[in-house]
Amino acid sequence: MEAVKRWKADWRYPTTLLCIYGFFSTVKPLEPFIIPYLTGPDKNLTTEQVSNQIFPVWTYSYLCVLVPVFLLTDWLRYKPVVVFQCVSLFITTAMLLWMESVPAMQAMQFFYGVVTASEVAYFSYIYSVVDLKRYRKATSYCRSIQLLGYTVGSVLGQLFVSFNLMSYNNILVFTLVLTAIALLTSCLLPMPQQSMFFHRRHTRQKTATEGTKRHSSVGGTGYAAEHTSGSNVSLEEVRDEEVQAKDGPDEKEHKAEDLEESVGADTCSKVLLQVWRDFRQCYASRQLLYWSVWWAMATCGYNQTVNYVQVLWEHVQPSQNFSIYNGGVEAASNLLGAATAYGIGFTEVRWEQWGELALGGFSGLGAASLFLMTFIGNIWVCYTGYVLFKCLYMLLITIAMYQIAADLSMERYALVFGANNFGALALQTIITSVVVDSRGLGLGIIPQFTIYASYFSVIAVVFSIRGLFTIWRAQRSSKESTSPDENEPPNSDEHRL
User: Fold this and answer.
1) Of 126-130, 278-282, 318-322, 458-462, highest mean pLDDT
2) What is the largest CA-CA distance in the chain?
């Protein structure tokens, strides 16, 4: 019993449960075949209904619930939202299995928007139950297991369809069983006692206490500078540590109690005001702003491409003979994308100087892939272009994540990443309502992908110009810093000689 208690108190216990949840909630064997399923005899919907009436609902619902879910996630301390996400996923799969009409499928897309909006709880939960020094390892586990789940789901779907092992409806029943396992696992997660904004009492008190101990052994302002750059905590927390280090034991204990009371009494208005202040301070950095703009724009185009690429495949090759390879293509794109993103960690490049040019150049390659997919009426070219496009996006988003997160505290890390995704979703909503929705232009799939390819071409041009300007300015400043030494007047003694 003691061993079990120690294991439950260790960081590996919640991380293991979260990884199990992440795996079973992302194994979706039918996802690569969703268009053949909806347009086939099971649902008997048309491609235009799926593309122009059903799929846009996901974008609208995602945008509507993203901010409320983000605040509720922190207020409810993550676990309830993780459980709610799994319940919504179960409802989504059940509706997809048992309902058939267009309004029913639109309702299904609404619940799926709730599922994707609740994704923030999955990645935020681990930071509330794991020590700071375990963040990177726990994050890598959770992200890797999700990728494994998506890949296993694609491979299983490919095997089920290729060898006629299961019908589409039976695949959905199998998915419901996996989702039920994920739901049971989410209920077993321990309830966090703190969060990033609403419930910061224990975190702040612990930080202040640890800061006092470290100050006594390391010493004053030197530690503050090291702690700010090394651990990515906020300046407010460092100031709290410095104040407590200067006080006596009684005063420190009294101020710790005051700190506990004030932080625990934070209201929603105070939290929102602090979030707004942090938001302004973060985006005051021009470099972070430029990377965030690319993030929002590229993620918008990526989501649109991934959401509607199966419609393009069906248009290029209407026969069901080639749709059976969708699962293999998705699995290959996930694995190669992960390998590409992983390889970035071993490259020695000054991304602060060359990063914007890389954003422009690789975005141009992504645009070229989309143009080939659109105008070369060959399914294998479409498959290859999709894999290349997805790998390029995974490469660039990994660089952007690293550059943005390098100098942010955990609170601001979550805030900036959430704001960037919200910006991407707002752009995606505009494009969907104008280009895709039947109440807008309601364009066909070829004009849609022509717009997406042109969209990435604009991103490529803008960031290539910006990247060339950044390199030119860096070289110019380098020359100006060395020119005074070269043009320095001769020594006065030598002049007299």
Assistant:
1) 458-462
2) 100
Cβ atoms of 291 and 400 within 8 Å: the answer is yes
Residues with Cβ within 8 Å of residue 239, at least 6 apart in sequence:
none
Length of the chain equals 497
DSSP calls for 236-253: HHHHHHHHHHHS-HHHHH
Query: Can you list the alpha helix ranges (DSSP code H) found in 376-431?
Result: 379-405, 410-431
Nearest to 67 by CA among 228, 281, 276: 276
Residue 122 pLDDT: 86
**With contact defined as beta carbons under 8 Å apart, do 247 and 255 qualify?**
yes
- Are the beta carbons of 400 and 294 closer than 8 angstroms? yes
pLDDT (tens digit per residue) in 98-150: 999 999 999 999 999 999 999 888 877 877 777 777 776 777 788 788 888 99
Residue linked to tokens 């204990």: 253
Taken in order 294, 69, 201, 193, the sign of the CA dihedral is negative
The tokens of 333 are what?
A: 């794109």
Do 440 and 433 contact (CB within 8 A), yes or no? yes
Give 205-218 pLDDT, tens digit per residue: 443 334 434 333 43
Whether 113 and 65 have beta carbons less than 8 Å apart is answered as: yes
Name, in order, each residue with C-beta under 8 angstroms of 459's C-beta and a sequence gap of 6 or more.
Answer: 294, 297, 298, 301, 359, 360, 363, 367
Please give the Cα distance from 147 to 125 (Å, whole number). Answer: 18
CA distance 307 to 304: 5
**Contact criterion met (CB below 8 Å) for 181 and 24:** yes
Q: List the one residue out of 311, 281, 306, 326 whose CA is nearest residue 419.
A: 281
Dihedral over Cα of 234, 235, 239, 241: its sign: positive
Residue pair 118/81 in contact (Cβ under 8 Å)? The answer is yes
Are residues 419 and 292 in contact, defined by beta-carbon separation less than 8 angstroms? yes
